[in-house]
Model the fold of this input.
Amino acid sequence: MTQKIEIAPLTKKDFVSDQAVRWCPGCGDYAILAQTQKNMPTFGRKKEDFVFISGIGCSSRFPYYMNTYGFHSIHGRALPIASGVKLANPNLSVWVVTGDGDALSIGGNHFLHALRRNMDLNILLFNNRIYGLTKGQYSPTSEVGKVTKASPFGSIDYPLNPPAVALGSQATFVARTIDRWQPHLASMMERAYAHSGSSFIEVYQNCLIFNDGAFESYTGAHKFENVIELKHGEPMIFGKNSKGIKLDGFTPIVVSMDEYSADDLLIHDETNLDLANIISNWTSNPVLPEPIGVIYAVDKPTYNEKVDEQIDLTIQNLGRGKLETLLNSGDTWVVE
Done:
């Protein structure tokens, strides 16, 4: 008789590696790491089923600190490497940890195409609106006028809007959260894990040394006046339920709940791409609250699923074939 071995449930401690964490004291990365280590056991899988892949940057130290499989790759190339891992072993849960510079500058092309293909990856983009590892240059998400070592008279570049870029790349899951909003960060990671396809989460992350306080209005005492938490099927209310958002044509405006009821407000529909585009692009309007939560989520066949189907169909029609036959097919030459 075979004896059944009971495996104890995993805890956060099981996902903590033996490596010393080397980020600046007070860095927002600590909060994201702690929440990730805490979340992984809740998915009910072995830690060997998880892979964390990164490029280059402060955030890219992440794989060292997760007691899972991992790969600290090269600048901007985390996504194609992660795509290869997922194609080679579809049963793995593959997570990509990247920054605003790593993903949107040198890695911008890979970012677009991973989302376009709907590869089944979970992408966490730590956005601190600065280059931290290289000591404080302005990044693709830095605001116009940002004074840094690389822009002593103020940046004249217009910043990228990561959720808008993701939506333009036909992403099927787009969300935003904040490093200090721990329960919210956890819920976004849970939604991303459950999503089949490319899930993209922008995490506002504070860089204490080179861009401290960039998101203070979303984490400080008045945060509820400046942030709206998007909830599917619910009216857009914020400011301790004192304000709401309604559309004036296609333009979102803030209204007082003393003058309007919930029935008058915009209802969030995370399956509506037109609404997702409106929400992602109102970030630049200082009058409107910063949207966090799931901006867009739809189901669509994944690239890795379609690859597996194509391989199975080809084998069914043509047989498995042989590598030697493939190498000797078509035009060949003999070099003497």
Q: What stands out?
A: Residues 217 and 328 are 64 Å apart (CA to CA). The chain is about 30% helix and 20% strand. The first helix runs from residue 29 to 39. The chain has a mean pLDDT of 95.
